[in-house]
Amino acid sequence: RKTHQPSSYHFFNEPAEVSLFRSRLLRWYDQSKRDLPWRTVAMTETDANIRTYAVWVSEVMLQQTQVATVIDYYNKWMKRWPTVQELAAASVEDVNEMWAGLGYYSRGRRLHQGAQKVMSELAGEMPRTTQGLLKWLPGVGRYTAGAVGSIALGLVTGAVDGNVTRVLCRLRAIGADCTSSLVTDLLWEICNLIVDPERPGQFNQALMELGALVCRPKSPLCARCPVQTHCHAYRKVTHITFSVAILYYGMLSKMGGGHSVCFCEGWARDLGVQNYPRKPVRKAPRVERMVTCVLRCRMTEDEDEPQYLLIQRPSTGLLAGMWELPSILLEEDIPGKKHRALLSAEVQRIVGTSPDEDSFQYLGEVVHIFSHIHQTYVVYSASVGGSTERDREPQSRWVSASALQEAAVSTGVKKVCELVHVLTGLRGLCMRDISIYISSLFYIVMSGKCCLIPAFLIL
């Protein structure tokens, strides 16, 4: 048996319900919100230009990155570049170094490009409308424009991010693919309807906060939810007297061209409200293996501290403009016995000299996972003398261990340096940004034995 609910089932249609929903959510937010630096700026900064810039920076950093990781990066960024004018005057290299370890590195470059655009084309004035934010700031989409506009400028507009998508899909029992244009448009329509016109920025943050703290992807805290009585998903789970077939298997409504926004697939009873939102199956990440070398050099015999070779990546593509250790992408059929020969040839190409193949010492393997790539670094170390041709490869440089700590290198490179630190005791290579390591695990493979090690245990 199938049942069809009216499309109003997936919407907020009663003004009284909208008003009650707003008041309950904002009351909870006022009592429970986290104390975050960008929220303080949004509430206390009287200069709209600085306020808009500060919120913009925070929203870009928070894309695909956990709040706990962002806080320290945000504070350092704002201390160094407190205004859009100062960011515009910075170099790309400085921006990359500041962003190192935060991931999705194009975000930092787009902030820099946006700041320069504001200075050159808008006389240093940040846009004051969502349309202006979309037009003038590279990388700003509908969500970021809505968030910055509402939080920094008080514009009455919704802001639909991943947290808000989850909250609204559960509240209104929207079980179709949440990435589809049909559902996306519906969510924006709902959000623009229910946003509080008196406190739009705080309302949008309250929805996001609810998704982060209560309506979580896993183990949601429904008993603590301030808007539990408005939630269709929760009602479905608790009203067990109804037929499961009636509640969960039907196409509950039709919208626009006959497309359903409800479940067309079976309901997993053990998941409860976690059946929402419904997402498409993710494509498996691409698997890559890289052979990489930590290459040391003492430029003079009396030099106490060795130098380490870094290569700059191309200005476009993955990790554009970042620095990395000499590395080669391995073809599937390359046997391990050829790794040293490959590295020897690569080092020869870069610096004009190379150790004997037997001098490359195998250290282990490090796994680093991007959103779309599962990457394994096969790590070797080697040393060369001081007669290298330091300018042979324009996109290379030798740096001290201390300079390596501050260089614009990726999290993957930092993990490789940690491996070197653990195995050889080179403390100068240790990367001290604990926020990166608490949230990550990596594999070290030695003598064929694989150990899973929390990175923060080996600092």
Automatic annotation (TrEMBL):
* Cofactor binding notes: Binds 1 [4Fe-4S] cluster.
Q: What Gene Ontology molecular-function terms does this entry list?
A: 4 iron, 4 sulfur cluster binding; 8-oxo-7,8-dihydroguanine DNA N-glycosylase activity; adenine/guanine mispair binding; metal ion binding; oxidized purine DNA binding; purine-specific mismatch base pair DNA N-glycosylase activity
GO terms for cellular component: mitochondrion; nucleus
Q: Which residues form the HhH-GPD domain?
A: 61-213
The domain of life is Eukaryota
Membrane spanning residue stretches: 436-458
The alphabetized list of GO BP terms reads: base-excision repair; mismatch repair
Q: Which reaction does it catalyse?
A: Hydrolyzes free adenine bases from 7,8-dihydro-8-oxoguanine:adenine mismatched double-stranded DNA, leaving an apurinic site
One family name in Pfam for this protein = HhH-GPD
Q: What EC class does the entry list?
A: hydrolase
Q: What compartments host this protein?
A: Mitochondrion; Nucleus
Alphabetically sorted, this entry's keywords are:
4Fe-4S, DNA damage, DNA repair, Glycosidase, Hydrolase, Iron, Iron-sulfur, Membrane, Metal-binding, Mitochondrion, Nucleus, Transmembrane, Transmembrane helix
List cofactor names only.
Answer: [4Fe-4S] cluster
EC code(s) of this entry: 3.2.2.31
State its role: Adenine glycosylase active on G-A mispairs.
The protein's matches in PANTHER family, at most eight in alphabetical order, are given as: ADENINE DNA GLYCOSYLASE (PTHR42944)
Q: Which family does it belong to?
A: Belongs to the Nth/MutY family.
Q: What is this protein called?
A: Adenine DNA glycosylase
Q: What is the organism lineage in this UniProt record?
A: Eukaryota, Metazoa, Chordata, Craniata, Vertebrata
Recorded name of the encoding gene? MUTYH
